[in-house]
TrEMBL record:
The lineage of its organism: Bacteria, Bacillati, Actinomycetota, Acidimicrobiia, Acidimicrobiales. Pathway: Antibiotic biosynthesis. It comes from the Bacteria. Coiled coil: none annotated. One of its GO terms (biological process) is antibiotic biosynthetic process. Pfam families: 2OG-FeII_Oxy (PF03171), DIOX_N (PF14226). Belongs to the iron/ascorbate-dependent oxidoreductase family. The keyword Oxidoreductase applies. Residues 203-322 form the Fe2OG dioxygenase domain. This is Putative oxidoreductase. Keywords: Antibiotic biosynthesis, Iron, Metal-binding, Oxidoreductase. One of its GO terms (molecular function) is oxidoreductase activity. Residues 1-33 are annotated as: Disordered.
Protein backbone atom coordinates (compact mmCIF):
# COMPACT_ATOMS: atom_id res chain seq x y z
CA UNK A 1 0.00 0.00 0.00
CA UNK A 2 1.30 3.40 -0.95
CA UNK A 3 0.88 5.92 1.83
CA UNK A 4 0.88 9.69 1.56
CA UNK A 5 4.09 11.13 3.05
CA UNK A 6 2.39 12.42 6.16
CA UNK A 7 0.06 9.50 6.75
CA UNK A 8 0.23 7.57 10.03
CA UNK A 9 2.40 4.45 9.71
CA UNK A 10 0.36 1.24 9.44
CA UNK A 11 0.11 -0.78 12.64
CA UNK A 12 2.64 -3.52 13.14
CA UNK A 13 1.39 -6.70 14.87
CA UNK A 14 3.22 -5.85 18.07
CA UNK A 15 2.05 -2.24 18.16
CA UNK A 16 0.13 -2.28 21.44
CA UNK A 17 -0.78 1.41 21.21
CA UNK A 18 -2.82 0.94 18.02
CA UNK A 19 -6.25 1.16 19.69
CA UNK A 20 -5.45 4.01 22.06
CA UNK A 21 -6.40 7.53 20.88
CA UNK A 22 -3.47 9.96 20.80
CA UNK A 23 -4.35 13.45 21.88
CA UNK A 24 -5.65 15.54 18.99
CA UNK A 25 -5.38 12.63 16.53
CA UNK A 26 -7.82 10.59 14.46
CA UNK A 27 -6.31 7.23 15.46
CA UNK A 28 -9.61 6.05 17.02
CA UNK A 29 -11.41 6.38 13.69
CA UNK A 30 -8.55 4.85 11.68
CA UNK A 31 -8.10 1.87 14.01
CA UNK A 32 -11.82 1.17 13.60
CA UNK A 33 -11.84 1.58 9.83
CA UNK A 34 -8.93 -0.83 9.23
CA UNK A 35 -10.89 -3.79 10.59
CA UNK A 36 -13.95 -3.70 8.31
CA UNK A 37 -12.92 -4.91 4.86
CA UNK A 38 -14.73 -8.30 4.63
CA UNK A 39 -17.77 -9.05 2.42
CA UNK A 40 -20.21 -9.77 5.30
CA UNK A 41 -23.85 -10.80 4.90
CA UNK A 42 -27.09 -9.00 3.85
CA UNK A 43 -29.42 -7.92 6.67
CA UNK A 44 -32.80 -6.10 6.41
CA UNK A 45 -33.12 -3.05 8.66
CA UNK A 46 -35.51 -0.11 8.53
CA UNK A 47 -33.96 3.11 7.27
CA UNK A 48 -36.34 5.83 8.43
CA UNK A 49 -37.80 8.34 5.97
CA UNK A 50 -38.62 11.78 7.40
CA UNK A 51 -40.84 14.28 5.58
CA UNK A 52 -39.45 17.74 6.37
CA UNK A 53 -42.53 19.38 4.83
CA UNK A 54 -45.01 17.66 7.16
CA UNK A 55 -46.49 20.60 9.08
CA UNK A 56 -48.52 18.43 11.46
CA UNK A 57 -45.53 18.35 13.83
CA UNK A 58 -43.91 21.12 15.85
CA UNK A 59 -40.26 21.98 15.17
CA UNK A 60 -39.31 20.31 18.42
CA UNK A 61 -41.14 17.09 17.42
CA UNK A 62 -39.31 17.16 14.10
CA UNK A 63 -35.97 17.68 15.90
CA UNK A 64 -36.73 14.61 18.04
CA UNK A 65 -37.67 12.54 15.00
CA UNK A 66 -34.44 13.44 13.17
CA UNK A 67 -32.33 12.89 16.28
CA UNK A 68 -33.85 9.47 16.99
CA UNK A 69 -33.41 8.26 13.42
CA UNK A 70 -29.80 9.47 13.37
CA UNK A 71 -28.93 8.12 16.82
CA UNK A 72 -30.25 4.62 15.99
CA UNK A 73 -28.66 3.91 12.62
CA UNK A 74 -26.58 6.98 11.68
CA UNK A 75 -28.42 7.00 8.31
CA UNK A 76 -31.89 8.31 7.46
CA UNK A 77 -33.65 9.65 4.39
CA UNK A 78 -35.51 12.91 3.90
CA UNK A 79 -38.36 13.94 1.61
CA UNK A 80 -40.09 17.34 1.42
CA UNK A 81 -36.59 18.85 1.55
CA UNK A 82 -37.34 21.66 -0.90
CA UNK A 83 -34.59 20.87 -3.44
CA UNK A 84 -36.24 20.91 -6.87
CA UNK A 85 -35.92 17.62 -8.76
CA UNK A 86 -34.99 19.64 -11.85
CA UNK A 87 -31.94 21.06 -10.04
CA UNK A 88 -30.89 17.54 -9.05
CA UNK A 89 -31.35 16.26 -12.63
CA UNK A 90 -29.38 19.23 -13.99
CA UNK A 91 -26.51 18.55 -11.58
CA UNK A 92 -26.38 14.86 -12.59
CA UNK A 93 -26.54 15.79 -16.25
CA UNK A 94 -23.55 18.13 -15.80
CA UNK A 95 -21.66 15.54 -13.76
CA UNK A 96 -22.06 12.97 -16.55
CA UNK A 97 -20.87 15.51 -19.09
CA UNK A 98 -17.85 16.39 -16.94
CA UNK A 99 -16.77 12.76 -16.60
CA UNK A 100 -17.23 12.27 -20.36
CA UNK A 101 -14.62 14.99 -21.07
CA UNK A 102 -11.25 13.79 -22.44
CA UNK A 103 -8.82 12.73 -19.70
CA UNK A 104 -6.46 15.50 -20.80
CA UNK A 105 -9.07 18.14 -19.94
CA UNK A 106 -9.95 16.57 -16.58
CA UNK A 107 -6.25 16.15 -15.76
CA UNK A 108 -5.85 19.95 -15.85
CA UNK A 109 -8.12 20.02 -12.78
CA UNK A 110 -6.38 17.19 -10.95
CA UNK A 111 -6.76 17.05 -7.15
CA UNK A 112 -3.46 18.11 -5.57
CA UNK A 113 -2.51 16.12 -2.43
CA UNK A 114 -4.24 17.37 0.70
CA UNK A 115 -6.60 19.80 -1.08
CA UNK A 116 -9.71 17.61 -1.30
CA UNK A 117 -10.69 19.63 -4.41
CA UNK A 118 -10.58 18.79 -8.11
CA UNK A 119 -10.50 15.53 -10.10
CA UNK A 120 -9.11 12.16 -9.10
CA UNK A 121 -9.18 8.83 -10.96
CA UNK A 122 -8.95 5.51 -9.08
CA UNK A 123 -6.71 7.06 -6.43
CA UNK A 124 -8.62 6.51 -3.19
CA UNK A 125 -7.32 3.54 -1.23
CA UNK A 126 -9.53 2.79 1.77
CA UNK A 127 -7.85 1.81 5.05
CA UNK A 128 -10.55 -0.91 5.48
CA UNK A 129 -9.80 -2.82 2.28
CA UNK A 130 -6.39 -1.67 1.06
CA UNK A 131 -7.84 -1.69 -2.50
CA UNK A 132 -8.45 1.24 -4.84
CA UNK A 133 -12.05 2.40 -5.23
CA UNK A 134 -13.32 1.65 -8.75
CA UNK A 135 -14.35 5.23 -9.39
CA UNK A 136 -13.41 8.74 -10.42
CA UNK A 137 -14.62 11.84 -8.62
CA UNK A 138 -14.51 15.62 -8.81
CA UNK A 139 -14.81 17.76 -5.71
CA UNK A 140 -16.08 21.31 -5.58
CA UNK A 141 -14.76 23.16 -2.53
CA UNK A 142 -15.92 26.68 -3.35
CA UNK A 143 -13.25 28.48 -1.30
CA UNK A 144 -10.46 26.88 -3.38
CA UNK A 145 -11.78 26.54 -6.92
CA UNK A 146 -10.54 29.86 -8.33
CA UNK A 147 -7.30 29.81 -6.36
CA UNK A 148 -6.37 26.37 -7.67
CA UNK A 149 -7.91 26.98 -11.12
CA UNK A 150 -10.15 23.92 -10.92
CA UNK A 151 -13.20 24.96 -12.96
CA UNK A 152 -13.38 23.73 -16.55
CA UNK A 153 -13.60 26.73 -18.89
CA UNK A 154 -16.89 27.65 -20.56
CA UNK A 155 -15.46 26.30 -23.84
CA UNK A 156 -14.68 22.95 -22.26
CA UNK A 157 -18.06 22.60 -20.53
CA UNK A 158 -20.53 25.46 -20.82
CA UNK A 159 -22.54 26.28 -17.67
CA UNK A 160 -20.74 23.75 -15.47
CA UNK A 161 -19.45 26.27 -12.92
CA UNK A 162 -22.80 28.05 -12.58
CA UNK A 163 -24.73 24.77 -12.18
CA UNK A 164 -22.34 23.41 -9.55
CA UNK A 165 -22.07 26.65 -7.55
CA UNK A 166 -25.84 26.81 -7.38
CA UNK A 167 -26.22 23.12 -6.42
CA UNK A 168 -23.49 23.41 -3.78
CA UNK A 169 -25.22 26.39 -2.22
CA UNK A 170 -28.65 24.65 -2.23
CA UNK A 171 -27.15 21.60 -0.50
CA UNK A 172 -25.31 23.76 2.02
CA UNK A 173 -28.59 25.44 3.01
CA UNK A 174 -30.34 22.09 3.48
CA UNK A 175 -27.43 20.62 5.45
CA UNK A 176 -27.47 23.65 7.78
CA UNK A 177 -31.20 23.14 8.35
CA UNK A 178 -30.61 19.55 9.46
CA UNK A 179 -27.53 20.51 11.52
CA UNK A 180 -29.57 23.22 13.32
CA UNK A 181 -31.89 20.46 14.45
CA UNK A 182 -28.92 18.61 15.97
CA UNK A 183 -27.58 21.85 17.48
CA UNK A 184 -30.85 22.37 19.39
CA UNK A 185 -30.79 18.79 20.69
CA UNK A 186 -27.15 19.19 21.79
CA UNK A 187 -27.96 22.39 23.70
CA UNK A 188 -26.02 24.64 21.26
CA UNK A 189 -27.42 27.79 19.62
CA UNK A 190 -29.48 27.19 16.50
CA UNK A 191 -26.71 28.76 14.41
CA UNK A 192 -23.80 26.89 16.04
CA UNK A 193 -23.00 24.69 13.04
CA UNK A 194 -24.00 27.31 10.45
CA UNK A 195 -21.39 29.68 11.89
CA UNK A 196 -18.80 26.93 11.57
CA UNK A 197 -19.69 26.07 7.93
CA UNK A 198 -19.37 29.54 6.38
CA UNK A 199 -19.12 29.51 2.55
CA UNK A 200 -17.83 33.11 2.56
CA UNK A 201 -14.85 32.20 4.77
CA UNK A 202 -11.46 31.24 3.26
CA UNK A 203 -11.49 28.47 5.90
CA UNK A 204 -14.59 26.83 4.38
CA UNK A 205 -13.85 23.19 3.47
CA UNK A 206 -17.29 21.68 2.90
CA UNK A 207 -17.35 20.00 -0.46
CA UNK A 208 -19.69 18.80 -3.20
CA UNK A 209 -18.42 15.53 -4.63
CA UNK A 210 -19.49 14.24 -8.04
CA UNK A 211 -18.95 10.49 -8.26
CA UNK A 212 -18.68 8.22 -11.28
CA UNK A 213 -18.30 4.52 -10.55
CA UNK A 214 -16.85 2.79 -13.57
CA UNK A 215 -18.90 0.35 -15.68
CA UNK A 216 -17.91 -3.29 -15.26
CA UNK A 217 -17.87 -6.53 -17.25
CA UNK A 218 -19.07 -9.73 -15.60
CA UNK A 219 -15.64 -11.30 -16.13
CA UNK A 220 -14.00 -8.42 -14.25
CA UNK A 221 -16.08 -8.81 -11.12
CA UNK A 222 -13.75 -9.82 -8.33
CA UNK A 223 -14.96 -10.42 -4.82
CA UNK A 224 -12.31 -8.26 -3.23
CA UNK A 225 -12.93 -5.05 -5.20
CA UNK A 226 -15.34 -2.29 -4.23
CA UNK A 227 -16.81 0.69 -5.95
CA UNK A 228 -16.17 2.42 -2.61
CA UNK A 229 -14.56 0.38 0.17
CA UNK A 230 -16.09 0.38 3.66
CA UNK A 231 -15.55 3.69 5.43
CA UNK A 232 -17.10 6.30 7.63
CA UNK A 233 -17.35 9.88 6.36
CA UNK A 234 -14.97 12.49 7.81
CA UNK A 235 -17.53 15.27 8.01
CA UNK A 236 -20.40 16.43 10.25
CA UNK A 237 -23.25 15.53 7.89
CA UNK A 238 -23.46 14.04 4.39
CA UNK A 239 -26.35 14.60 1.97
CA UNK A 240 -26.31 11.94 -0.72
CA UNK A 241 -28.15 12.06 -4.05
CA UNK A 242 -28.50 8.74 -5.86
CA UNK A 243 -30.08 7.73 -9.15
CA UNK A 244 -32.97 5.25 -9.27
CA UNK A 245 -31.79 1.88 -10.59
CA UNK A 246 -28.14 2.52 -9.65
CA UNK A 247 -27.91 0.43 -6.50
CA UNK A 248 -24.97 -0.60 -4.35
CA UNK A 249 -24.90 1.57 -1.20
CA UNK A 250 -24.84 -0.56 1.95
CA UNK A 251 -24.57 0.41 5.61
CA UNK A 252 -23.52 -1.50 8.69
CA UNK A 253 -24.85 0.14 11.85
CA UNK A 254 -23.08 -0.71 15.10
CA UNK A 255 -20.19 -2.29 13.18
CA UNK A 256 -17.63 -1.69 15.90
CA UNK A 257 -19.77 -3.39 18.55
CA UNK A 258 -20.45 -6.33 16.21
CA UNK A 259 -16.75 -6.69 15.41
CA UNK A 260 -15.82 -6.59 19.10
CA UNK A 261 -18.37 -9.31 19.85
CA UNK A 262 -16.53 -11.31 17.16
CA UNK A 263 -19.53 -13.56 16.47
CA UNK A 264 -19.47 -13.91 12.73
CA UNK A 265 -19.65 -11.60 9.75
CA UNK A 266 -20.84 -8.01 9.74
CA UNK A 267 -24.44 -7.48 8.54
CA UNK A 268 -24.92 -4.98 5.70
CA UNK A 269 -28.21 -3.25 4.80
CA UNK A 270 -28.90 -1.82 1.32
CA UNK A 271 -30.13 1.74 0.93
CA UNK A 272 -32.28 1.89 -2.18
CA UNK A 273 -32.16 4.99 -4.37
CA UNK A 274 -35.70 6.41 -4.33
CA UNK A 275 -36.81 9.41 -6.42
CA UNK A 276 -37.40 12.56 -4.32
CA UNK A 277 -35.39 11.20 -1.41
CA UNK A 278 -32.03 12.41 -0.11
CA UNK A 279 -30.01 10.08 2.10
CA UNK A 280 -28.39 11.70 5.15
CA UNK A 281 -25.66 10.31 7.35
CA UNK A 282 -23.66 11.42 10.34
CA UNK A 283 -19.90 11.76 9.88
CA UNK A 284 -17.00 11.41 12.30
CA UNK A 285 -16.77 15.13 13.12
CA UNK A 286 -20.34 15.24 14.44
CA UNK A 287 -19.87 11.94 16.25
CA UNK A 288 -17.03 13.58 18.22
CA UNK A 289 -18.93 16.82 18.69
CA UNK A 290 -21.96 14.95 20.03
CA UNK A 291 -19.89 12.99 22.58
CA UNK A 292 -20.46 9.88 20.44
CA UNK A 293 -24.25 10.12 20.88
CA UNK A 294 -24.71 10.34 17.11
CA UNK A 295 -22.96 7.44 15.35
CA UNK A 296 -20.91 7.80 12.21
CA UNK A 297 -21.92 4.59 10.48
CA UNK A 298 -19.75 2.39 8.31
CA UNK A 299 -20.89 2.21 4.68
CA UNK A 300 -19.62 1.17 1.26
CA UNK A 301 -20.66 0.84 -2.38
CA UNK A 302 -20.48 -2.76 -3.53
CA UNK A 303 -19.82 -3.92 -7.08
CA UNK A 304 -22.95 -4.89 -9.04
CA UNK A 305 -23.96 -8.53 -8.97
CA UNK A 306 -23.70 -10.29 -12.37
CA UNK A 307 -27.49 -10.01 -12.94
CA UNK A 308 -27.66 -6.29 -12.08
CA UNK A 309 -27.08 -3.11 -14.11
CA UNK A 310 -23.37 -3.28 -15.01
CA UNK A 311 -23.20 0.20 -16.50
CA UNK A 312 -21.81 3.27 -14.77
CA UNK A 313 -23.17 4.47 -11.45
CA UNK A 314 -23.37 8.18 -10.64
CA UNK A 315 -23.99 9.82 -7.29
CA UNK A 316 -23.47 13.26 -5.77
CA UNK A 317 -22.59 13.85 -2.11
CA UNK A 318 -22.42 17.11 -0.19
CA UNK A 319 -20.07 16.82 2.79
CA UNK A 320 -20.67 19.45 5.48
CA UNK A 321 -17.14 19.63 6.94
CA UNK A 322 -16.58 22.24 9.64
CA UNK A 323 -14.40 25.20 8.62
CA UNK A 324 -10.64 24.68 9.02
CA UNK A 325 -10.44 27.01 12.04
CA UNK A 326 -13.38 25.43 13.91
CA UNK A 327 -12.31 23.50 17.01
CA UNK A 328 -14.08 20.18 17.50
CA UNK A 329 -14.37 20.00 21.25
CA UNK A 330 -17.05 17.77 22.72
CA UNK A 331 -18.65 19.00 25.96
CA UNK A 332 -17.51 15.98 28.05
CA UNK A 333 -13.82 16.13 27.06
CA UNK A 334 -14.01 12.48 25.95
CA UNK A 335 -11.99 13.37 22.83
CA UNK A 336 -9.09 15.85 22.89
CA UNK A 337 -9.84 19.13 21.03
CA UNK A 338 -8.70 19.17 17.41
CA UNK A 339 -9.14 21.78 14.69
CA UNK A 340 -11.29 20.68 11.77
CA UNK A 341 -8.25 21.41 9.57
CA UNK A 342 -5.95 18.97 11.40
CA UNK A 343 -8.78 16.48 11.62
CA UNK A 344 -9.44 16.42 7.90
CA UNK A 345 -5.77 16.42 6.87
CA UNK A 346 -5.10 13.29 8.91
CA UNK A 347 -8.09 11.49 7.38
CA UNK A 348 -7.24 12.54 3.82
CA UNK A 349 -3.59 11.49 4.25
CA UNK A 350 -4.70 8.00 5.23
CA UNK A 351 -7.01 7.69 2.20
CA UNK A 352 -5.18 8.95 -0.86
CA UNK A 353 -2.05 7.62 -2.47
CA UNK A 354 0.76 10.16 -2.74
CA UNK A 355 1.09 12.14 -5.95
O1 LIG B 1 -22.00 6.88 -3.93
C1 LIG B 1 -22.56 6.57 -2.88
O2 LIG B 1 -23.70 6.08 -2.87
C2 LIG B 1 -21.85 6.77 -1.56
C3 LIG B 1 -20.60 7.62 -1.65
C4 LIG B 1 -19.85 7.73 -0.36
O3 LIG B 1 -20.12 7.05 0.60
C5 LIG B 1 -18.75 8.71 -0.23
O4 LIG B 1 -18.31 9.28 -1.26
O5 LIG B 1 -18.31 8.96 0.91
FE1 LIG C 1 -19.26 7.89 2.38
Amino acid sequence: MTAAPDSPTPDSPDDTTADRPRSGSVETELAKERTFGGAGIDVDREIRVIDLADTSRTQSELDDEIWNAAADIGFFQITGHGIDERAIDAAFDMAERFFALPDGVKAKRRMAPGTNSGWEFRSQRRPSTGTLDQKESYQVTVSRMDLLDLWPTGDELADFERTMRSFESTNHALAMRVLSSFARKLGFDDEFFTERHDPTSPEYQSTLRLLHYLPVEVDDLRRDEWRAGAHTDFDCLTLLHQRPGQRGLQVCPGADAAARAGDGELGWTSIEPTPGTITCNIGDMLMRWSDDKLPSTLHRVRMPRPDEHLGPRYSIAYFAQADRDAVIEPPSGRHAPITASDYLQQRIAANFAAG
